[in-house]
Amino acid sequence: MTKVNARFATPFQSSSLSCALVPAPEKANLREVDLEVKVQLLVSESCVPCDQAAKVWRKVAAERGLDFSVVSLDQPEGRTLAARLQLKTIPALLVDNALVAIGVQSLDEARALVSPARS
Fold first, then answer.
1. 5-35: per-residue pLDDT in tens?
2. Could you confirm whether domain 36-106 is CATH 3.40.30.10?
3. What is the pLDDT of residues 79-91, one digit of tens each?
4. What does residue 49 show for φ and ψ, rounded to 5 degrees?
5. CA-CA distance, 56 to 47, in Å (whole number)?
6. Distance between CA atoms of 106 and 55, rounded to whole angstroms?
7. In this structure, what are the phi and psi dihedrals at residue 15, rounded to the nearest 5 degrees?
8. What's the start-to-end Cα distance of the chain, in Å?
9. How far apart (Å, rounded) are the C-alpha atoms in residues 79 and 60?
């Protein structure tokens, strides 16, 4: 299992995945993507940070009119995505099936990731 700084982590184990609050990667920036972007948040039902991330992304998706869905790792689709991406930490944010962020973003960070898509 990947070790995560305890300051940002919430204990969670399901198979070999961990659940964490981590800052959004600085390189993840979707400013140049097509406006018809598919945003997926991979979560687990027992992951508290996943609930926090889902709230943030639901709000941003509603503001920006994004094609947004929450995909549970408890379902076959979620397990398939996690295996394909070799995920070890959730929540994980995918845009057009590409991993762009791990952890919980603030509203401002999430908005910046999809700006100016449908703004």
1. 333 333 344 455 556 555 554 544 444 444 5
2. yes
3. 999 999 999 999 9
4. -60, -30
5. 15
6. 10
7. 60, -125
8. 38
9. 25
- Both tokens of 61, joined, read 């998706």
Amino acid at 73: L
Sign, Cα dihedral of 42, 102, 91, 109: negative
3-state secondary structure 4-35: CCCCCECCCCECCEEEECCCCCCCCCCCCCCC
Tokens linked to 119: 């703004």
CB atoms within 10 A of CB 45: 11
Domain residue ranges of the chain, discontinuous segments joined by +: 36-106
Q: Are 91 and 9 in contact (CB under 8 A)?
A: no
Q: Which amino acid is at 114?
A: V
Nearest CA among 54, 68, 48, 51 for reference residue 114: 68
Secondary structure of the chain: what % helix, strand, coil (to 5)? 30, 25, 45
